[in-house]
Amino acid sequence: MTEVIAQSHMRHWRQDVRLIALMLGGALVTVYILAPFCWLLLSSFMHEQDALSVPPHWIPKNPTLSNYLSFFNPSETRAVVGSRAIEQTLPGMLNSFIAAVGTAVVNLVLGTLAGYSLARFKFRGRGALLGIYLGSRMLPGIALIVPLYLTIKAFGLLDHLVALIATYVTFTLPFTIWLLKNYFQAIPRSLEEAALIDGCTWLQMMVKVLLPTALPGLIAAAMFAFMTAWNDYLFAVILTSTTASKTMPVVVAGFATDVTTERTLMATSGVLAIIPPLVLAFLFQRLIVQGLTSGAVKD
Q1: In the CATH hierarchy, which top-level class contains the domain 82-295?
Q2: Is residue 130 within 8 Å of 174, Cβ to Cβ?
């Protein structure tokens, strides 16, 4: 009896140790992920001298909103070095939003048609075609930047958001097709057959039956395309040169110049850049998780 009790205590002790280890691991991962953002947020409320202090001030001694006010009233900004970047921030955010939304919309249109075809129709080369789509994701962007630049220049689309959208689609569409193909496969064919029997055309069936059912997968694919386009710096800095098309990552990098770096203004612009995708992620969190877990893991 004593031995049984001892084994029971040992088992509970091991479970407690495992639980504590998991909690500590989770806490460390949380700190690792959130610490940079917290420092960015705190720096945005600091004066420049506080941000440069040694040792650093983790908590602002004299919090200020002047950094944020500078972006909404550039004419009265205190910054000299970063004034040009300040004037470009709000247009840059708008350009990023247009490019990201355009990329998401094109991905959904083309990805839905291709994903549905791969999920529902059997044809020769279907597996090879899907493999080519996925294989194209393995190509690093830096390897394609020169031919892309020359092609876009030949079409006269340099410094246009259309060029950025077309570039982003080439890198995000393969994942969208793969995700939606698996998600459509998880939807019973009986739903489509019932809609067609009731007199719906194929287009009506897609709009009224299939797409609403696949909404979590569509939202997950759209958010992936949106975030990829929103965060891109490489293609944006190569393919754009004026305020008319510069995106937010390029504008944020503009606070670091040969003369100096406006750290507090860069931090503030970083916080402003995070807000739109963060809001979208919170709004569609449930659908994004449902779309990734329900569609992406099924074949």
Answers
A1: mainly alpha
A2: no
